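Entry under discussion copied across for reference:
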Amino acid sequence: MYVRFWKRFFDIVLSIIGLVVAAIPMAIVALAIKLDSPGPVIFKQPRLGRYGTVYTMYKFRSMCVGAEEGGVYSDSNDSRVSRVGKIIRATSIDELPQLFNVLKGDCSLIGFRSPLTYHPWPWEEYTEEQRKMFNLRPGITGWAQVNGRKTVEWHDRIAMNVWYAENCSFLLDLKILFMTVFKVLCNADNENVAETVKEENKRPVEK
């Protein structure tokens, strides 16, 4: 009952409240991004959502235009990150536009972190077990995010996402929400320390 109805109900209510409360701060951030570097304020990127459906994820742009051509991983010393980008990344403010994704139904406040369409591997290469995580909507935060976030290798991250999909409940979501607030305030695990797909676990992509 919670997953079928109440989870979506809370998503709608809380995303509306969040957008109203954050409206002025978001406007200030948008202006700062525009003044800081050329390019659009909002970064749009295709991501894998529920049941493997591709949707467009919204974030405040924190890197220079075309930065994705330089690779997937970035850290605090990445020259592609703008001055404003360093601030909004450290505070996770760059994630706020995803509230629009939540309101639209693309994702949830809490779920698995939606992967890129090609990283860590394409949809076709996920195993049947791994695809269980896609039974729920992706989230702005989730069980894997509060248990290591960017420091966790992808196979372990997916395993945690599958566990969440099989054990989702109101109390678990509440726990994740409080843990997320703590992580954001401490800026914990918010930087890639190395490639998060181990070399021996990388899968060849068929040409």
